[in-house]
Write a structure and sequence with these properties.
The chain is of the alpha/beta class. The chain contains 13 helices and 11 strands. A 9-stranded mixed sheet has the order 3-2-4-7-1-8-11-10-9, with helices on both faces. The protein has a two-stranded antiparallel ribbon with strand order 5-6. α6 crosses α10 and α10 packs across α11. The longest helix is centred in the C-terminal third of the chain and has 18 residues. The structure holds malonyl-coenzyme A.
Length: 418
C-alpha cells in the first residue's frame, strides 16, 4: 500500500426522522460531529477538503462552500470545497473524489457530508420538487440524429420513470411482478435487524402487491422511503494517520472505483435499449482498478430506490447473469423464508450479504443521502462492527450509488487491508 493511500477512517449518521425536523445543513453538521467524535484527537480544524451533496429540501448555491462557511471551516487557506451533483450516486462519487484528493492531490483529511429533510416537506411540495427533476424545457430540445424524445412521465414522475424500466425488463427478460415485490419484502427482512431502520416489521410479497399502486407495476411499498437524515464520511491519508500517532491501518481502504452516465430520464418503454444503463460499465471499471472480481467481494451495498434498480444491480455487478436478477432475488427470498421458518435465529446475511441495513425501500431514503448508508454499512462490515448483521470474515465490499433514473452510476470497492 502506498504511503498516501486513502482510508475511510470514520463514519457518522443521525437517526432518521428526528423531531423537530432539523435543516439539511444541521443534519450534515450532526453527522459530521458524530464522525469526528469517533476518532480521538481529530477535529474540524484537521479537515482540508470538504465535499457536500446538495439537498432537495433546502438547496444552497455551492452547497459545500455554504456548509464550510456555516461550520467555520472557511475562511482558511488550506481548505478545498466541492459540491457533487450526480443525484443518488453522489455519496459514492464523492467517496471516489475524496480518495483522489487524498491520494493524488496530497490532502490529509477530506470530509463528505450529505443531509436532507424530504419527509419534513409536505406531500404536495415534495412531489412538486421531485417531479421537477425531470422537467423538460421545450426551448432546450435540440434534435440530433438518433435522439430519443421523452414521452412525458405522469406524476409521481420518479416512480413512473423506474416503472417504465421495470416494464421493459418484464418484456425483455421475463421479470415477473412478484419478483419485483420480493425485493421490497427481502429489504424489509434485512432492515428489521438494524436499530436505525424505519421499517421494523418484515412485510410479505402479498403485502407489497396489495399496497396502493403509485405506477402500473409499482406499489407504495416499493418506493424509496421518504425520510430525513444526515450522514458523513472521513477519508484520510496514511501520512496523516502516522503523523497523528493513529493506527495507519485504521478503517478501510478505497481500492478502486468507476463511474458512468446515462440519460436524465428514460424514453418510452418501447424505446428503452441497454445503452441507457451505466452500472455495468462503472462496476467493470471498479473491478479492473481494484484488480478483483465478484467472487472476491464479501459484502455488497447496492442502490435499490425501486426494485428494478436492485434487480439490475445484482446483474451488473456479476452476482447473476443478464436478465436473471429477478430469479436471483426470488430464490434468495424463498431461501431466507425457508431457513427462518426452521430457525428463527438464522442470519439472512449468510445467504444474502447485500444491504444488511435494508436499503432505500426499508431502511429509509433522505433523497440523495442513502448511498451514504451503503458506504457506512460496508464500513461496519469491514471493521467487524456490524453486530447481528455481521457478514462472517468480510474483507472486501462493493458499494453502488445510482442517480436520477439510471442517470449516473458510481461504484467503489473497499477493503480492510493495510
Ligand atoms: C412510503 N411509505 C412506506 C414506503 N414508502 N412505508 C414502507 N415502506 C416504504 N418503502 C409510507 C410512508 O411512510 C407513509 O406512511 C405512506 O406510505 C405514504 O407515503 P408518503 O411519502 O408520505 O406519501 P405521499 O406524499 O402521498 O407520496 C407517496 C409517493 C412518494 C410514493 C408518491 O412517497 C414518493 O414519491 N416516493 C419516492 C421517493 C423518490 O422518488 N425518491 C427518489 C428515488 S430515486 P406514514 O405512516 O408515514 O404516513 C433515487 C435516485 C436519485 O434515489 O438520484 O435521487
Amino acid at each position: 500500500m502506498s504511503r498516501n493511500a486513502a482510508r475511510l477512517i470514520g463514519v457518522g449518521m443521525t437517526r432518521l426522522n428526528p423531531k423537530p425536523v432539523p435543516s439539511p445543513s444541521r443534519l450534515m453538521q450532526q453527522a459530521l460531529d458524530a464522525a469526528l467524535g469517533s476518532i480521538p484527537g481529530v477535529g474540524l480544524k484537521d479537515i482540508s477538503g470538504l465535499i457536500a451533496i446538495p439537498s432537495l429540501a433546502k438547496p444552497h448555491f455551492m452547497e459545500a462552500h455554504y456548509f464550510a462557511t456555516q461550520v467555520g471551516l472557511l475562511p482558511a487557506k488550506h481548505v478545498q470545497c466541492r459540491t457533487i451533483d450526480t443525484g443518488g450516486a453522489g455519496p459514492v462519487a464523492a467517496l471516489l473524489s475524496a480518495q483522489r484528493m487524498v491520494a493524488e492531490q496530497g490532502l490529509d483529511l477530506v470530509a463528505v457530508v450529505a443531509g436532507d429533510a424530504v419527509k419534513g416537506l409536505d406531500s404536495a411540495e415534495f412531489l412538486r420538487r421531485a417531479d421537477a427533476t425531470c422537467e423538460v424545457d421545450e426551448g432546450d430540445v435540440v434534435k440530433v440524429e438518433n435522439s430519443k424524445t421523452m414521452e412525458p412521465l405522469p406524476s409521481p414522475v420518479i416512480p413512473n420513470g423506474y416503472d417504465r424500466v421495470a416494464q421493459y425488463q418484464m418484456q425483455q427478460y421475463g421479470l415477473t411482478r412478484s419478483q419485483l415485490a420480493a425485493v421490497s419484502a427481502l429489504m424489509s427482512i434485512m432492515a428489521s435487524k438494524h436499530p436505525y431502520a424505519l421499517t421494523r416489521t418484515p412485510r410479505t410479497v402479498k403485502d407489497v402487491l396489495e399496497a396502493q399502486l403509485v405506477a402500473p407495476v409499482t406499489s407504495v411499498l416499493e418506493c424509496a422511503r421518504r425520510a430525513d437524515g444526515g450522514a458523513a464520511l472521513l477519508v484520510a491519508s496514511t501520512r496523516f494517520l502516522e503523523r497523528r500517532g493513529l493506527d495507519p491501518g485504521l478503517g478501510v481502504v478505497v481500492v478502486g472505483g468507476g463511474e458512468a452516465s446515462g440519460p436524465l430520464y428514460p424514453p418510452s418503454v418501447g424505446g428503452i435499449t441497454e445503452d441507457m444503463f451505466s452500472c455495468e460499465e462503472a462496476a467493470e471499471q471498479a473491478y479492473r482498478e481494484a484488480q478483483v472480481g465478484v467472487r472476491d467481494i464479501d459484502f455488497f451495498g447496492l442502490y435499490d430506490c425501486f426494485p428494478i434498480c436492485l434487480i439490475r444491480a445484482v446483474e451488473a455487478v456479476g452476482l447473476c447473469g443478464k436478465g436473471k436478477g429477478g430469479l436471483y432475488i426470488e430464490h434468495k427470498y424463498q431461501e431466507i423464508l425457508f431457513r427462518l421458518a426452521n430457525d428463527p435465529n438464522f442470519k439472512p446475511q449468510e445467504v444474502f450479504p447485500i444491504n444488511t441495513h435494508g436499503g432505500l425501500q426499508a431502511f429509509g431514503a433522505p433523497w440523495e443521502v442513502p448511498a451514504m448508508y451503503n458506504i457506512i454499512e460496508a464500513f461496519h462490515q469491514l471493521t467487524n462492527t456490524a453486530g447481528d448483521r455481521q457478514v462472517a470474515n468480510a474483507r472486501r465490499a462493493l458499494v453502488y450509488g445510482n442517480g436520477g433514473i439510471f442517470s449516473h452510476s458510481a461504484v467503489a470497492i473497499l477493503g480492510n487491508g493495510r
